[in-house]
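Reopening this one. Same input as before:
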Amino acid sequence: MEKILKSVALCSVFVLLACSAALGEEPGTDIALDEVLTFNSEYMLSGDELLLASATETPADGDQEISSSASKDKKPTQAEIAEAINNPLSSLWLLFTQNDTKWYGGDVLDRLGEDDLVMNTTLIQPVMPMQITEDWKVIFRPVIPINSFDTLDGLHVNPPGGGEGSSFEADFDRKTGLGDIILWTAFTNKYTPPDIFGFGPTIMMDTASDEKLGTGKWSAGPMALAFHVGDKWIYGVVAQHWWSFAGDDHRNDVNLTDIQYVLRYRLTPSTNIGFGPNIQANWDADSDNRWTVPIGLGGDTLVNIGPLPVKIGLEAYYNVVRPDNFGPEWQIRLMFVPVIAAPKWSKKPWF
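Same output, byte for byte:
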């Protein structure tokens, strides 16, 4: 509980500092990449899945249309909102909420005679763009995971007396709580459609409420994104890497890469089909347990819940490459992305 409170306080201080800077005041003082189940009875979350809202519109035009409509006191159309809500570098504030359910298998479970395990992660991701100067913008995106995992609690011999025909059986315990919060920060200059770019740092914080729900490490590294946004086709990539630099010396080091590749086709201005899965690589694992490579398909659309515009989506993935010992085979992803009213000061340059 103390760790959770400290994590919430850290995020709150960060947002307050950002708000103070944006207001021109002096400060007072982000599914998991891959879960690795080792045979020494340690269940460890090797990372946290990072998600990027799919880029599905002309970014600069989308921002200008929303701004222009607002300046004339006209309500933006659904198509204009759809243009901006899917732009990873737009000025819209979003509460990107995502739920991932994964079915895990592998040699470890086979040796224990266990069926596939079902893991679930809900990611809460406030997307907060702010204008630094007339030309530069920064997007803060904390990724707050709520994990629910079957974790290995121990092994026992069956029958208890051992002997011929006996075998090991696993005892699993369901753990639910806060995982390692990730904060990625993207900087972007004025861009000209159809090509947009961003870059910045990403940090993975040791905030898990239980040691089996996180890495036990503080990790950081670079991130970058590049997208092509056409009239019908949208494609791009966002890449991140983390190296651990502090934390529990008894836990494995973090050396992880996450690459999300996106390809979408617009059926209508507010409805898309396509995919945006995450390829992951744990560079400290052996070659048979290093890569997770998913393929799949899904769709999303913009709806109104009362006066609130909300993007909803469903995607399904199969991992054609996954760790032999223990890794996800299938995945179902649900998305719920309400638009939040952006504060006026967020578009006011800091400098």
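So the earlier flakiness isn't reproducible anymore. For the record, The first helix runs from residue 2 to 22.
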